[in-house]
Amino acid sequence: MGAPELAGAGTIGKTDAMRQLAAARGRLQRKLGDVDLAAVGLSAYNQRYLGHKLAVIEGELQQVSDLLTMCLAGSTVPLERFTLLDYGGGSGVISLLAKEAGIGTVIYNDIYDVSCEDASALAGALGVQLDGIVCGDIGEVLAYLREQRRVLNAVVSYDVLEHIYDVPSFFGALATAPMSDRFFRLVFASGANIKNPRYVRWVTKVHRTDELEGTEPGWGHKERDSVRPFLEIRRELIAAAAPDLDVAQVDDLARATRGLRIDDIERAVEEYREHGAISYRPDHPTNTCDPYTGNWSEHLMDPAWLERVVREAGFDATVEAGRYATAGGGPKPAVKRLLNAAIGAFGSRALPIASYYVVYADRAAAPARAG
Ligand SMILES: C[S@@+](CC[C@H](N)C(=O)[O-])C[C@H]1O[C@@H](n2cnc3c(N)ncnc32)[C@H](O)[C@@H]1O
Q1: Per DSSP, what are the bridge partners of residue 179?
Q2: Domain locations in the chain?
Q3: Separation between Cα atoms, residue 242 and residue 40, nearest integer Å
């Protein structure tokens, strides 16, 4: 497999990046079309997950290349010296396209060990060399970057933010990552768009199912995720932490701790014992997370709050409406073009018609020194 053509030095304009990515997309699409996921040894989870992507791969790769364009546009770092972190990379498609497009150093991360192994196997099968695979949360990523003396130019992430348990702490930690003084950008996109009423109608049903009914672990189920109703799990955790509470108290506390992970549930139990009440309030009527891992079921977050959180961590952030890939599933291409025109014209005010949002940020300029 030949090496992709690279951009040379100079500022990477939006159109340069788009041109290079378009060529890389075609090559990757062909390689992915030829690969047998089962023969590569991918887990059932990623065979299912990636299988869905492959069914609409042209649109998927268009969307990924939009995100990578956002990462690269305006950079003066030559592409071959650019270092990108793909946070929560799953089956690895973003990393694969980034590498295929000629980005010099691509570091893949995921919290799920099965996906880390799958991404590595898939990259190997496609003849793509990922430069680092970091299995773990942000703490492991930071440790890796320091150990390997890697300095980041960009972090890209798709459909991960809505699963991260403590978003303010996450961005606070990310702000301590080694970042290039020359160019640094964050592009965190998520389909959990609270402003899109159609999506919210669908996802709140998912929240209620996870909270109250549980799910059937079919073929390709993710082993890390609990399938029992989250409310029931919290009841058990609370009863185990405080055997002296009666059934009604346990139930009240279990309902009041929706959206908390086991460590915070246990802290809430302590607070309840001391004060007879807890201070925590769920941030939304249906948001809920897996009590063992803190993995949210598509956490709906207010964009204004999110923007503030990322700014407080030290980034110059905006939350923007993501553009539709004109290929792939969903509305007809002509409709998507119209929607994209509206997104272009109205910016973040177009979030109600966008299928995803993007937290787009550069590092905030250091305040000018007085004197
Ligand atoms: C919906 S998948 C998206 C995967 C991939 N980014 C994509 O676009 O296909 C969410 C991914 O985020 C990972 N994840 C969730 N929480 C994480 C965390 N705190 N740190 C790193 N990865 C995380 C999950 O294991 C999963 O692979």
Answers
A1: 152
A2: 14-194+301-362, 204-275
A3: 48
Q: For the chain, give the percent of residues with pLDDT over 70.
A: 96
CATH number of 14-194+301-362: 3.40.50.150
Q: Which tokens hold the place of 151?
A: 């300095």
Query: What is the atom index within ligand 1 of the atom nearest the CA of 157?
Result: 6
User: pLDDT of 321-331, one tens digit each?
Assistant: 999 999 888 88
Give the angle subtended at the CA of 244 by the CAs of 240 and 248, to the nearest 5°. 85
Cβ neighbours around 76 below 10 Å, total: 10
Residue 340: pLDDT band (50, 70, 90) is very high
Residues 6+ apart with CB under 8 A from 5: 20, 23, 102
Ligand 1, atom 12, residue with closest C-alpha: 88
Helical residues (DSSP H) of the chain, grouped into ranges? 14-34, 37-40, 44-55, 57-72, 93-100, 113-126, 138-147, 167-174, 197-208, 230-241, 247-256, 262-275, 303-312, 333-346
Helix (H, G, I), strand (E, B) or coil at 371: coil
CA of 64 to the centre of ligand 1 (A): 15
CA distance linking residue 23 with residue 311, whole number of Å:
35
Q: Which of 69, 143, 126 is nearest to 92 (CA)?
A: 126
